Structures are given as C-alpha cells and as structure tokens.
Amino acid sequence: MNAYTKFLVLGVLVLFAGCATTVEVPKDVNYDYNINFDFTKLKTYDLSPTPTTVGIEYLMMQRIKTAIDTQLQAKNVKKTPSNPDFLVTIYGVRSRIFTTAWRGAGSDLIVEKGKLILQFVDPETNRVIWWGEARAILNPNSKPTDETKMVNDVVHRILQKFPPVS
C-alpha cells in the first residue's frame, strides 16, 4: 500500500469518525429538601398514583418503580401501602418530541424531555420534603436490558442524595 492510499484510508476513517454521533449522558443531579424536616424518622414509603399526564409508557414506568424500590430498600426504607412515612411521586418525559406539564404537589411543574424527577411528599401535610432530578438521553433503538441499566443508573444517582446529609 503506497503512502497516498494510506493517507486516503486514514482520511476516510477520520471523516466517518467525525460523522458518528456520540451522546454525552449528563451526570448532574439536582436536589433540594426541607432543612427543618427530620429525615431520620423516614422508615417506610409508598408510591403515589402516577399522574395521567406523565409521558412515560408502562414498561419504562415499571423499570423506574423497580429501581426506586431497590435503591430505597438498600437504604433500609421499606415499602408499605399502610401509613407510609412518605410518598414517592414520579415525574418524567421520555419522548424526544414533546414536553409536558401538570399540577404536582401544589405547584405547576414543567418537565424537560429525558428528565426524571422524584418527589418525596409528607402524607400528613401533602408537602414536598425532598426532591431530586436527573436527565438521561434515551435512544429509541435501545434494547430493554440497556434501558433497564440506564434507569437503574439514573435512579441510583438521584437517590445517592437521599437522605440529605446536614
């Protein structure tokens, strides 16, 4: 192979590499909490009913719920439908086309596409005591196993911030 052919092949490889799309998955997690709330008393939780306007289909929602259950169990917080210490509300939009808004915990909430928001609500006061959010880039051609890994990673990153350390 002469030098010209090597240069041509190298140029084509560089061209194709430049055309390949790479997507950076944001690793940032935003969160906030009520600094006056005693998080040490939280031992049980339950999932709030999912708002009908949430743009996440059934199978993805099941992945999210399973990941939440797994992460909270690892923190010794048990799921119970009777008298939970807090409720978890899930908001998110999977679609790459639209965003949605709905009424949540007393305030309007607009969710960007690809974002997952978890709100922890005190069932006695119906007020948010903690929330966390992260964003993930979803590939519409992903396999279910890849989507499950992505969901587990996002929920893990969000719940690393819970309970808050004062």
Describe this structure in words.
The chain has 166 residues and is an alpha/beta fold. Helices cover 30% and strands 27% of the residues. It contains three helices and eight strands, in the order αββαββββββα. It has a six-stranded mixed beta sheet with strand order 1-8-7-4-2-3, covered by helices on one side. A two-stranded antiparallel sheet has the order 5-6. Helix 2 (58-74) packs across helix 3 (144-159).
Keywords:
166 residues, alpha/beta, 6-stranded mixed sheet, two-stranded antiparallel ribbon, 30% helix, 27% strand, globular, disordered N terminus
Compressed to H and E, one letter per element, the order equals HEEHEEEEEEH
Can you summarize the main beta sheet? 6 strands, mixed
State Rg.
Answer: 21 Å
- Strand tally is 8
Distance between the termini: 66 Å
Please report which band the strand proportion falls in: under 5%, 5-15%, 15-25%, 25-35%, 35-45% or over 45%. Answer: 25-35%
Could you report the average pLDDT, rounded to the nearest whole number?
Answer: 76
Give the helix level as a range of percent: 25-40%
Low-pLDDT segments: 3-25, 96-112
Indicate the overall shape. Answer: globular
